[in-house]
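Sanity check

After download, print the first record. It should look like this:
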Amino acid sequence: MDRDDPIYRLRDRPSLRLGVMGGAFDPIHVAHLVTAEEALQQFQLDEVVFMPVGTPPHKMRELAPAEFRYMLASVATAGHPHFWVSRYEIDREEVGFTVDTLEFLSRTLRPDARVFFVTGADAVLDILTWKDTNRVLELCTLIAATRPGYDLARLAGVLEHLGPGLVGPGPDGKVWIMEVPALAISSSMIRERLASGKAARYLVPDSVAQLIEKTRAYGHPGG
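Expected structure tokens:
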């Protein structure tokens, strides 16, 4: 990995509170950025690193090229002083698992660093299918982003299989709930709009919309 990658630039930061946003970002959109900003503010994070996946273990469809998704994430976050984009996962040749990324961070950052892995509550519902789930919870605190009115009972029920008291900011809490504004935006919805000739402006940052329109990576967007 490039030594200019933000992970290496942050490796010597004492007592770092690092948020990690993983995902395909195909394409990155406003709800991703709102979620990252809420995590930054609510949990007093120092920095948030976006990690576009290279070869994901669970997605069956073909993704846009990794370099393009990395470029979209880079332009989307360029104006934020605490948002960064890492090439770590897209430069890996093998299938990337969350636990492998967390092990890398554990080896690279200072021992007093704390990693917060930010993902959607629906993704956390599948945590029992993740590779080395218990190790994941040893290496990070999961921030589960929810929309207002989300039924937390189902999430708590799933996590009970891993041990009591895992949900919440208490001493044993490994999954913290974060409510974010209800933005009914998804990457799949944006791809469908673009493929049918509709525009994605205001659903993605202006810089991302401009790149998508110029490259027609997801079809021919409307005006």
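If your output differs, re-run the checksum step. Summary of this record's structure: The radius of gyration is 17 Å.
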